[in-house]
Amino acid sequence: MQDLVNTVDLEGGSDELRSPAGLSRWMSGRGLEVGRGELGPADLAEALALREALREVCLAHSGVDMPTATLERLSGLLARGPLRLDIDAEGVARIRPGQGLTGVPALIAATAAAVAQATVEGTWPRLKACASDTCRWVYYDRSPAGRGRWCTMAICGSRAKMRTYRKNKTARVPD
């Protein structure tokens, strides 16, 4: 799921999902069944909608309000991905995508399974989007208190702190 959201680098402008062929390559590279035919523009649009809705959820994990329309769109998309529960020989339960799915429904089901499993494990709220408007990279917050705001303190965090410092310094300068 984190891989899907990070297929676009907002700062650098690169996007692995620029075309239906790019989506096919990306899905195949992650073991997701593309299906017999080529993915089309409608498939790409749906995958991009899923990606950006997930980014909004990761922003919500950082305390940003999520628009109701995003929540409804994401719920509608995830409803298209049937899941199943598998139990292994040791009795460990795993949530998996339904069988026989191809194309974007396979991507949606794999995403839904990853979100469900992360929720069960308690790690879902730690998947966050960087607070920098120009970055929005999705990262796993490993801070002890779970209150991280930036993908990396060395880059985005430093930039934000420097902007705040300069703003405060300018505000203190007498006329």
In brief, what are we looking at here?
Helix content is 48%, strand content 9%. With 175 residues, it is mainly alpha-helical.
**CATH fold-level label:** Jann2411-like fold
Radius of gyration: 19 Å
Continuous helix count: 6
For the sheet with most strands, the description reads: 2 strands, antiparallel
Average pLDDT reading: 89
Proportion of beta-strand residues: 5-15%
At CATH's second level, what is the architecture? Answer: Orthogonal Bundle
Low-confidence stretches: none
Shape: globular
Judged by helices, strands and strand pairing, the structural class is: mainly alpha
Order the strands across the largest sheet as they lie in space: 1-2
Could you tell me how far the N terminus lies from the C terminus, measured between alpha carbons in angstroms? 51 Å
Give the domain tally.
Answer: 1
Name of the level-1 CATH class = Mainly Alpha
**Total beta strand runs:** 4
Strand/helix succession? HHHHEEHEEH
Estimate percent helicity: 40-55%
